[in-house]
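Re: the 294-residue chain
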Amino acid sequence: SSAASAASAGSAAATAASRARGAWTPDRARWRSGDGGSPRVAVLGPIRITAAGPPPQRRRRACQELVVYLAARGESGASAVEISHSLWPHQDIPATVRNEVIASTRRWLGLRPDGQPWLHESDSAGRYRLDPDVLVDWYLFRRLRARGESRGVAGAEDLHTALGLVTGAPLHDAERPALAGIRPAYSWLPGTALQPELILAGITDTAHELVEMCLSTGDFDGARHAVGRAWLADPHRSDDQPWRDLLRIAYAEGNLEEVRTIIADLLRYRDAEHPDELSPATATLISELLPAPR
């Protein structure tokens, strides 16, 4: 998809070719272990912030959203005014409320080993930023994917590790409808690096790449696992690519009965009566795998 291609291009641009093979191992280890003190921002599923400081007692959801917002902003950061407009759109909130959220979030994220806060104080231009060493699972995913793609079939392990970061639908919590009278959360997400649709496209494409690698080496279990990770991120199974991948896996295994079962399941998911009603790519694959009797 075009969104996934953009994600892949952005990933490649953000990944310096000069970095040594294995450069992501420390980040990956720190993510898994939680050691090192770096806050961890999980968006590849329900939003979760893991940090060493005291969790906010008030406005916790706003504090969580501020962390995700600044993670999306990256090096450009955000001014106090931008924070207000993004987290409280169309609301004239007092500066004291915004400043309370920023201060609570800074305490929550805690301090680096050198004593500096993970949420930097505003700089001379009045902009707030997360420290570059704050770990964000989507950015780690992209780095692993870029490295895996650069290594050919040998990169399957990196793609497998990247997909292992997925815990559910991207930014699942952000989809909750706002209650009447409550600020609309995450309204700033469209068009950012953390847009859920963009992330889902990246996960789906990565799973497809891993399926291709696994099929080329006869690793059917690995291929099925990749499809499962794609569907973990897309519980409604709205994209046909994992369905096509699963069809190709079953066919490669010589299991035509399963191929027919998968087709029947897909038709039910799409509320369709015949494969011709599916997307052209899917209908074409089905006709190739199960040609009509002459």
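The mean pLDDT is 87.
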